Fold each of these.
Amino acid sequence: MADDKSTTAVVNMCAFGAKWLKPTRIEFFLTSKAAVTAQFAKMKCKSKRQKTKGKPTICQFSKEEHVLLSGLDGQKKGGFLTKAAQEYPRGLCIAIAKAHFGG
Ligand SMILES: [Zn+2]
C-alpha cells in the first residue's frame, strides 16, 4: 500500500480531544512528509497504567482515564460507543487540513 507518494501517520484520538485512545492510521497521498510529521509526530498517547489491575489507562493529554470503547453510549439512547467513536474529533480534522494545505 505505502509507496513514495504516501506518508502514514499513526495517532491516538485522545490527542485530539476524544475521551478514548483509539489508535488510528491515516494514509496521506501527495502530501509532504515534513508537513505530515509536523502535524502528527507527537500525537500518540504515552498513557500510564493504573496501579489497580483492570482500570483504564490514564491519558497523557487529558490526564483522565481513557473511556474503553465497549458497550453503549450513555448519552445517545441505544447507540454503541464504537459508533460514537467513528467520528473524527474536530482537532484531527484541522490537523489533516493543515498537513494538506500547510499552516
Ligand atoms: Zn490518551
Amino acid sequence: MHPPSATFLGGLRVYKIVLLGEGGVGKSALTMQFVSHCYVDYHDPTIEDAYQRQAVIDGESGLLDILDTAGQQEFTAMREQYMRSGEGFVIMYSITDRQSFLEAAQAKRQIERVRRAEVIPMVLVANKMDLESKREVTTEEGQELAAQFDCPFFETSAALRHCVDDVFHTLIRQIRTKERLGMKLAQKDKKLRHRASTIVQNFFRRQKKRV
Ligand SMILES: Nc1nc2c(ncn2[C@@H]2O[C@H](COP(=O)(O)OP(=O)(O)OP(=O)(O)O)[C@@H](O)[C@H]2O)c(=O)[nH]1
Ligand SMILES: [Mg+2]
C-alpha cells in the first residue's frame, strides 16, 4: 500500500531523490557510478541533471528518479524548489574539503526551513575517502553530524565505487519506512475516528430512546 502522494511509472513506484552538496564534492561522480557504473574523473560543473534507474531493493522494485543538482553558487537558484519536491535527500561533502562539511549542515537547515515539521528521509555522505592523505574531516566528525541529523552516514568513494549502492538503497529504505509509518498512523487515525463516530451515534441513539 502506498500513500496518495506516491507517483508511479509503468507500474513502478517512483522515488524522487535529490543530491545536495558543495560544488566539486562528487555528486555527479556518485550518481554516474550508481546509474551507469562508470567514473567521471573530470569536474564539469552541473547546472541540473536528472537520471532514472530501476532497482530491486529488498525484493521490491522501484524507479529511482535522481536529481543531480548544482553545487556552485551561481547555479543554486532552484534549490528551494527541489527541496520542496524531493522525497529523500543525499547530503554530501568531501572529506578533503572542510568548507563542504560546513555547507552540509547548512543544506540540512535549509531543508528543515522549507519542509517545516515534516520528517525527511536523508543520508549523510562523506565522499572521496580514497584521498586519505588529503583528509580534512574525520570520520568521527561525520558520524557526529549524522547523529545530529538523525540519519545514516556513509564514507564513500565514487572513484572506487565504494559504498555507492548502499547510499541509494538506504535512502529508499528510509522513504519506505516513513511511508509505512505514515500509512499505519493514517489507518490508526481512521480506526479512532470510526470508533469516535460510533460512540457519538450510540449516545444519540440512547438519548432518542429516553425521549
Ligand atoms: N579521488 C576522488 N575524486 C573524486 C571522487 N568523486 C568525485 N571526484 C572528482 O571530483 C571532481 C568533482 O566531481 P563532480 O562529481 O563533478 O562534483 P559535483 O559535486 O557534481 O560538482 P558540481 O556539479 O559543480 O556541484 C571530479 O574531478 C571527480 O572526478 C572520489 O570519490 N574520489
Ligand atoms: Mg555535478
